[in-house]
């Protein structure tokens, strides 16, 4: 299975062997710029609407929304134990989030341009 994000504000879960869309996830108010898997059932997405959303992909429902960026979220990565999320934004910041409760643990500033990619 593969998960994609689109300018149409949705994510799609694909069965690559069958070449078919299994689920369409709706909830963002802007284009989806980033997506990362959390585990076999959950994923997180970042959007032009300035939010990150945690999804139960099998049920196609948003289970949590993370808010705090002042501009589009361009990149996201899940890392660590307990799981954390790093998000990069057009607001020139990198935010570290506690995935369990959705709180922002810290904001890292220093870029003079938008943050386009993150890795862990």
From TrEMBL:
The keyword Repeat applies. One of its GO terms (cellular component) is ribosome. WD repeats lie at residues 1-24, 25-65, 66-107. Keywords: Repeat, Ribonucleoprotein, Ribosomal protein, WD repeat. SMART domains: WD40 (SM00320). It comes from the Eukaryota. Transmembrane segments: none annotated. Pfam families: WD40. GO terms for molecular function: U3 snoRNA binding. This is Guanine nucleotide-binding protein subunit beta-like protein.
